[in-house]
């Protein structure tokens, strides 16, 4: 089944996830959807010092939004802030240093932020793909800690703040790679069998999509969505997937093309009219499963994922 999923997914990707796939989809885009001012609205973007996160931050700043960049590396974050301010002429761009793999640090940031700022839109963009099984100081597998638990804690901690705002939204940048994975609640931290960083990442991205669906059902006042940016030429892709990059570099989307649907979900009226909890690709809700791929999980497994995340979140709460 994994060979079937991987083959179907790659063929789908060649057609849809590439630059040519974006250009084909772009023909149905409505330009006016992004011709909006977001002055007075506050946005958090994690992993915003490069790639899709930075591209999204820049477009939001150009439209007048207050942008909070959540980054791990101070120098790169300050450099990104300078670039965004220079391009947007908007000084309301702020840096917050947070390691998303450190659950206590995520809690601390969220609690501190909520006391000082309003928030309209949270964009969960930060992610990692660590090739070897590596544990954090807290004994958590690093991909899971960053991509899944960190995202869950940040989102959960900021939900009360989001609910105080008009038209609150949460967008999680997942990946089409999740289509090759079925949720595995029995081994969330990849302790069994041989470790494959690419598949661990894909499993995390499946977890993010389910998390989005579950949180949307629990919190009707907030518009939740997850999305696939396509195969984009970003520093993260070059670093984490050098072989894939070498083969595909001429077919990859630009960072701006990868960021387009994130931006659309974050600011357009059209996006807010879509049902909450869906998975998007190129401004359109798409299936979360490949045909005949047997990747659907049971409601009990999905509930177990959420219960496990909540237990871990409480364990590390400040």
What fraction strand?
A: 5-15%
Q: Could you tell me the number of beta strands? A: 8
Distance between the termini: 42 Å
| Percent in helix | 40-55%
> Which structural class do the helices and strands define?
alpha/beta
- Average pLDDT level: 96
Main sheet, how many strands, which sense, barrel? 8 strands, mixed
List the secondary-structure elements in sequence, H or E: HHEHEHEHEHEHEHHHHEEH
Assembly context of the chains: single chain
Low-pLDDT sequence parts? none
Rg is: 18 Å
C-alpha geometry: globular
| Tally of contiguous helical segments | 12
Q: In what order do the strands lie side by side in the largest sheet?
A: 3-2-1-4-5-6-7-8
List keywords for this structure.
alpha/beta, 12 helices, 8-stranded mixed sheet, 318 residues, 49% helix
Structure description:
The chain is of the alpha/beta class and 318 residues long. Helices cover 49% and strands 12% of the residues. It has twelve helices and eight strands. An eight-stranded mixed sheet has the order 3-2-1-4-5-6-7-8, sandwiched between helices. Strand 2 (66-71), helix 4 (74-88) and strand 3 (93-97) form a beta-alpha-beta unit. Helix 1 (2-16) packs across helix 2 (19-26), helix 3 (51-62) packs across helix 10 (255-267) and helix 6 (142-163) packs across helix 12 (299-315). The protein is globular. It starts with a helix and ends with a helix.
């Amino acid at each position: 089944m994994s060979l079937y999923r991987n083959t179907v997914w790659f063929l789908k990707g060649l057609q849809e996830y590439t630059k040519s796939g974006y250009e084909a989809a772009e023909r149905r885009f409505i330009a006016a959807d992004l011709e909006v001012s977001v002055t007075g609205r506050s946005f958090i973007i994690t992993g915003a010092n490069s790639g899709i996160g930075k591209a999204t931050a820049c477009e939001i700043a150009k439209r007048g939004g207050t942008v909070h960049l959540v980054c791990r590396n101070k120098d790169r974050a300050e450099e990104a802030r300078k670039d965004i301010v220079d391009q947007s002429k908007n000084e309301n761009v702020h840096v917050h240093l947070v390691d998303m793999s450190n659950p206590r640090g995520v809690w601390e940031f969220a609690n501190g932020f909520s006391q000082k700022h309003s928030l309209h839109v949270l964009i969960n963009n930060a992610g990692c793909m660590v090739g070897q099984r590596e544990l954090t100081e807290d004994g958590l597998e690093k991909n899971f800690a960053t991509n899944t638990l960190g995202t869950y804690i940040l989102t959960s901690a900021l939900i009360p703040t989001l609910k105080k705002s008009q038209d609150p939204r949460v967008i999680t940048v997942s990946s089409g790679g999740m289509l090759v994975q079925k949720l595995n609640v029995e081994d969330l931290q990849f302790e069994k069998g041989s470790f494959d960083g690419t598949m661990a990442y894909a499993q995390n991205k499946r977890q993010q999509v389910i998390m989005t669906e579950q949180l949307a059902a629990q919190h009707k006042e907030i518009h939740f969505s997850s999305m696939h940016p396509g195969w984009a030429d970003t520093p993260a892709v070059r670093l984490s997937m050098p072989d894939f990059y070498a083969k595909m570099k001429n077919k990859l989307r630009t960072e701006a093309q990868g960021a387009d649907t994130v931006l659309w979900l974050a600011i357009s009226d059209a996006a807010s009219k879509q049902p909450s909890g869906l998975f998007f690709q190129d401004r359109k809700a798409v299936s979360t499963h490949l045909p005949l791929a047997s990747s659907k999980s049971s409601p009990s497994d999905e509930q177990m994922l959420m219960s496990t995340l909540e237990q871990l979140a409480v364990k590390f709460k400040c």
